[in-house]
Write a structure and sequence with these properties.
This protein is an all-alpha fold and 323 residues long. The chain is built from 14 helices and no strands. It has two domains: 248 residues, no CATH class; 54 residues, no CATH class. Helix 6 runs antiparallel to helix 7 and helix 8 runs antiparallel to helix 9.
Length: 323
């Protein structure tokens, strides 16, 4: 493991000119993918909330009532109403699956572009990170769509059949294809959430993501795995925010790493303090070029280099009165 890491660390970064040329060619498709991913992620979540909001809910008490009355396999099953709902809304169920699938694939492409740009600047990034993105986005998107299809088909087969027993509805709504698709879709979700975290940490270290975007992206990865709210607003916002970054139109100025083709790590808090002090001394001494360079790096605000006014002491006030 140590030997592998050492060899990876010695690998030189890609040629900056080639990196910038490749990124210039793929910036627009990546920005479109990020926009599509952000819009469809929110639209898919909103669609499911609206669509499933009217679905009949079989509570625990309702499900246990037949067993408490001594009926082991009641007909019709309490879940029949839910199966009827899915059968009647088969088209909406498929649309929800398509939105989720396309959004996942678009997210994967945007993340892959960002990881590709990161690895060109930081060769020590593990190569498996790109495969995590591909496997996660494809697996989650594909099996989310298959899950919707299998649920709708199973519900229609149950409603069209003659049996209304518990075993029949369980087979229709929880059969092997549905269970397998559910498991693989969750594995894909875990992989895609891990991909968000890997990409954001390494892109932030390379200077391609601001600290705000990097930390927020890690939060997006966590929320992707454990959705604390029904609507993926944070996920959608982060993906859409990649659009101006990919197009070099970031509001506060494009990070230097996108312009140089090399890693431009963000300075630590101690380094920022040192740069501010050096810039203040340079401005006092009349070295405006040093001061402007510190402003360009973001280590200091243009108006923040002036020393704070010194409060007047009592002796100074007395001398002023004597005059």
């Amino acid at each position: 493991m140590a030997r592998t890491r050492k060899i990876a660390d010695l690998a030189p970064p890609a040629d900056p000119a080639e990196t910038l040329s490749w990124e210039q060619e793929h910036r627009r498709p990546a920005a479109i993918a990020a926009a599509v991913a952000g819009i469809l992620t929110l639209a898919g979540g909103l669609y499911q909330v609206v669509f499933l909001g009217d679905a009949p809910n079989v509570g625990v008490i309702q499900a246990m009532t037949p067993a408490l009355d001594g009926q082991v396999d009641v007909s019709p099953s309490p879940r029949t109403a839910f199966a009827q709902f899915l059968a009647d809304h088969f088209g909406q169920l498929v649309i929800a699956g398509v939105l989720t699938a396309v959004g996942a694939l678009a997210s994967g492409y945007a993340l892959w572009f960002l990881m590709r740009a990161t690895m060109a600047r930081r060769p020590e990034v593990p190569a498996f990170a790109r495969w995590v993105i591909v496997v996660g986005s494809v697996t989650f998107g594909l099996f989310s769509l298959l899950l919707s299809l299998f649920q709708g088909i199973g519900a229609k087969n149950y409603i069209d059949g003659a049996s209304r027993t518990r075993d029949a509805v369980d087979t229709a709504l929880s059969g092997t294809p549905i269970e397998l698709s559910l498991i693989l879709a969750y594995v894909g979700r875990l992989s895609l959430g891990l991909a968000f975290v890997l990409v954001c940490i390494n892109a932030m270290r390379a200077g391609l993501l601001t600290r705000f975007m990097g930390i927020l992206g890690c939060l997006v990865g966590a929320l992707f795995v454990i959705p604390l709210v029904s609507l993926p607003i944070v996920q959608s916002f982060w993906l859409v925010a990649l659009v101006p970054l990919f197009l070099a139109q970031w509001p506060n100025g494009t990070p230097r790493a996108w312009l140089s083709g090399k890693a431009e790590p963000w300075p630590s808090s101690a380094e920022v303090r040192e740069q501010r002090m050096a810039a203040q001394k340079a401005k006092k001494a009349g070295h405006d070029d040093v001061f402007e360079d510190a402003v360009d790096r973001g280590a200091i605000d243009e108006g923040g280099a002036e020393p704070a006014p010194v409060p007047r002491t009592n002796a100074a006030r007395r001398r002023r009165k004597r005059r």
